[in-house]
Amino acid sequence: MARKGENIRKRKDGRWEARYQKGRKSDGSIQYGYVYAAKYADVKKKRNDIIASLNVKADAAQETTGEDSVLFNELFDWWQADIREHIRTSSFCLYETILDHHLRPYFGRLPIKELTDSVTQEFISTKIKENLSPTYIRSIMVLFQTILKSVQNKYQCTVRIPAPQLPKQTKRMPEIFTAHEWKCLEEYLKRQTDEFSFGLLICMYTGVRIGELSGLRWEDYDAQNVQFKIKRTVYRMKNPAYPQTPNSSKTILCIGSPKTATSVRDIPLPLCLLADVQKHQKESDVFILTGTKQIMEPRNIQKKYKKLLNQLNMRYLNFHSLRHNFATLSIQNGSDYRTVAELLGHSSVNTTLNTYVHSDIDQKRKCLELLMK
To answer: Which of 40, 50, 111 is nearest to 81 (CA)?
Structure first.
C-alpha cells in the first residue's frame, strides 16, 4: 500500500504510477519522470532503480568534471534524495518549500566554489528587504548550513560553510487572557452542551495543542484512570502531487504521530469534567470535537473559536493562547515545572519556562512585597 508523500499512486486504469525527480529545467524548476507497473512493489522498485542510476551518473559526472563545475542545485538534489525516506513527510515538505522559495532561486545556479561569506550576507540582506522575520531567516540559514555539512560529509565535496551575521531576534512574549477573561470563557463553556465547547474545556484544563485536540477520539479515553492518551495530531501540509497530478489540491489534510516522542503522553482530566465526559462519550471511532466520525481540522477550529470570542465580546487571542494560559496558571498555582512540562509534552523544562510561563503584574507586586516582610 502506498504511503502519503511517496509520489506513488494507483491510476484509474488499475496501474500504479511512480514519480521521480529527473533533473532540472533551464529555469531551475524540477523536471519529473514517471514509471508504471501493474503492482505497487514493482513500480516502487522501478522508481528506486532509476533514482539509484541517476545518483551514480551524478557521482560519475562529478568525478569527470571536478567539483568546480558543481552547482548548488545539484547539491540540493543530492541532499533531498538522501533524506527523503528518513524524515516525516511534513518535515520534508517544509524543507522543500524553503529550498524552492528561497535557497534555489538565489544559490541554485551558483557553482559551489563561488560561495563566500559576502554572497551569503547579501542573500540575508535580500531576505530582510523582503520583510521576512529574523526567526524565519535564521531557520533558512540553519537548513542551508545543515545541507552543506551533510553533503560535505557524504560526498567529500569541498564546500565552504558560511558564518554570516544573522539578524537579531526580538523575543516577543505571547499574550494571555486576563484572569477575568479566562473565568468568563470558562463559565460560558460550562453552560453549553455541544461537543465543541466540551473540547475547548479539555484544552483549557490540559493545554493540548490544536492538532492534538482535532485528532482526539473516544478510543483515546481511559475511563478507569479518567485520562486521555495523546497519540495523534492533525495538520495540513503541501500536497507532494501538486501541481503535476491533474485536479490535485495545493494542500492535504494529514493525521500523523504527535510532534515529538515526548508529545505521546497521558493527560488526566480534572474531576469537574467527569460528568461532561459521561454525557458526551460515544463510540471509540468518534472524534470528541465533533461527536461524529468526521474530523474538524485545525483551521476550522480556529475559525469557530474566533467566532465564539467575538460572540462573547472578548478580545481575540489565537487558539494557542489557551495553551499559554494553562501553563502559566499551573505554575502560578504551585505546580512544579517538570509536571507541567510533561503535561504539555515538552522534552525540556526550559521550553516550558522560556515559552509558556509568564508573570503578571500581581505576581511581580507579590514578589516585591515578600521582600518587605
So the answer is: 50
For residue 342, the tally of other CB atoms under 10 A from its CB is 17
Mean residue pLDDT across the chain: 85
> Which of 76, 21, 25 has its CA nearest to residue 50?
21
Angstrom distance (rounded) from CA 321 to CA 125? 33
Query: 201 or 40: which carries more pLDDT confidence?
Result: 201
Grid cell digits, residue 180: 477575568
d(CA 49, CA 229): 41
Question: Edge-to-edge strands of the sheet including 227-230?
Answer: 221-222, 227-230, 265-268
- Size of the chain, expressed as the number of residues it contains: 373
Backbone angles phi, psi at 238, to 5 degrees: -60, 135
Question: How remote is the C-alpha of 155 from its chain's centroid?
Answer: 29
A 10 A CB-CB count for 256 gives: 16
- What is the DSSP secondary-structure string of 315-329? PP--THHHHHHHHHH
Where residue 155 falls among pLDDT bands split at 50, 70, 90? low
Quick one: angle between helices 89-98 and 72-83, nearest 10? 170
Nearest alpha-carbon partner for 254 in 241, 242, 237, 240:
237
Which H/E stretch holds residue 251? strand 251-256
pLDDT, greater one: 180 or 30: 180
Residues 340, 329: Cα–Cα separation, whole Å? 10
**pTM for this prediction:** 0.71
pLDDT in tens, 30-39: 777 888 888 8
